[in-house]
Amino acid sequence: MSQNSLHGDISEIGESDVFFRNLLESAPDAMIIVDEQGVMSLVNRQALRMFGYKRREMIGQPIEILLPKTMRSSHVPLRDSYTSKPRGTCELRMVFGSNISIGCPIISLRL
Questions:
Q1: What share of the chain is helix, strand, coil (3-state, %, to 5)?
Q2: Which letter, b or e, does each residue of 54-83 get, where b requires 16 or more Cβ atoms within 10 Å of its Cβ?
Q3: Which residues does 111 contact at the CB level (< 8 Å), separation at least 6?
Q4: Where are the domains of the chain?
Q5: pLDDT at 86
Q6: What does the pLDDT read at residue 20?
Q7: Which residues share a beta bridge with 93?
Q8: What's the fold here for domain 29-103?
Q9: pLDDT digit string (tens) for the chain, length 111 residues
Q10: 60-69 own/partner pairs: CB under 8 Å, 24+ apart
Q11: Cβ proximity of 87 and 104 under 8 Å
Q12: From CA 21, how far away is CA 27, in angstroms rounded?
């Protein structure tokens, strides 16, 4: 592989990442990206607005912080099965303590 083609591949990855992040931020709905362990890696501004958290309070945290305390421990095994059996609704907790029921389509995406 030539140096030029390697550089092209790297810059394409960088541009793809920027494009994806911009797409996520411009989405009209709240979007949260979690890894296989359920740790939030990307959140858009609509999710921040919906839940009342700052980005730094969500990134790196388990998705379970958004659940009511009574549901957190039982969620982990359910989360592990979400990619094979998506659920239609979730009950989530906003930072100021109220619970909301929302539709939450689950999409399995490997990067």
A1: 45, 15, 35
A2: eeeebeebbbbbbbeeeeeeebeeebeebe
A3: none
A4: 29-103
A5: 60
A6: 81
A7: 99
A8: Beta-Lactamase (3.30.450)
A9: 444 444 444 455 577 788 888 888 988 988 888 887 889 988 999 999 988 999 999 999 998 898 888 888 887 887 777 656 665 556 555 555 666 566 665 555 555
A10: 62/37, 62/38, 63/32, 63/34, 63/38, 63/39, 64/38, 66/32, 66/92, 66/93, 67/91, 67/92, 67/93, 68/92, 68/93, 68/99, 69/93
A11: yes
A12: 10
| Tokens representing residue 35 in the block | 């890894």
- And the tokens for 80? 């592990």
pTM reported for the whole predicted model = 0.66
Backbone angles phi, psi at 3, to 5 degrees: -60, -40
Which letter does DSSP use for residue 54 in this model? Answer: -
Quote the pLDDT of residue 71.
Answer: 80
Q: Say what the pLDDT of residue 7 is.
A: 41
Structure tokens at 108: 């399995």
Using CA atoms, how far apart are residues 31 and 36, in angstroms rounded to an integer?
16
